[in-house]
Amino acid sequence: MARNLSCGYKGRTILSEINLTVFKGDRLAIFGDNGSGKSTLLKGLIGAPEVIISGERMTAEGLKLVYLDQNYALVDRKASVLDNLSGTTPQLSPQERRNHLARFLFSSTQEVQKIAGRLSGGEIARLSLAMVTASPIDLLVMDEPTNNLDIPTIEEIEIALADFEGAILIVSHDVVLLRNIGVNKAFYIKDGRLSQLKTSPLDEEEFLDELIGGGE
Predict the structure, then answer these.
(1) Are residue 58 and residue 82 in the same domain, yes or no?
(2) What percent helix, strand, coil does the chain show, rounded to 5?
(3) Neighbouring C-alpha atoms within 13 Å toward the C-beta of 169
(4) Which end of the chain has a smaller Cβ tally under 10 Å, C or N?
(5) Per-residue pLDDT for 204 more than 90?
(6) Domain count of the chain?
């Protein structure tokens, strides 16, 4: 996916010599201190226009990729919860859409007809994840998807992501979430470089020891 990739903005390089490959079914996590460039890396990997890159960025032909940012920009704030989902799931029947939304705690008619702009931050996050997990996707890229969510909501999200059949590339410091969705490889950004951790969140004790050590 990336070979000797550099990412940054006009006049400033944030990350250099990035090498990262995502295979079918992979579940990869990115860690790093605040301001280390985690979001910049995700945007560079997906080809976001605001990030300047050099090096090689490659994607498989026909790859279906969805990026879920911290602001949940894919949600139309002027449309209802149900209409937001309907716009991305033409293959589902009305009842299938209602069933899917119910998994994300949108159960009643009043809840699914609510305008998205009136939702809380946690509800917006739940709707976003409902939208991106309802259709076949090859790669789901997520930037801190569970920020400001309560435990029951996070648990529902874990169930949905555990059932997700595509590859996942996620920035998150929620080790329990990462373990529960089956993340098998983790990477750490330090001093503008990306390196793979020796352990994965599935080996929680050893992983936390390595993470606390800053990837060393």
Answers:
(1) no
(2) 35, 25, 40
(3) 24
(4) C
(5) no
(6) 2
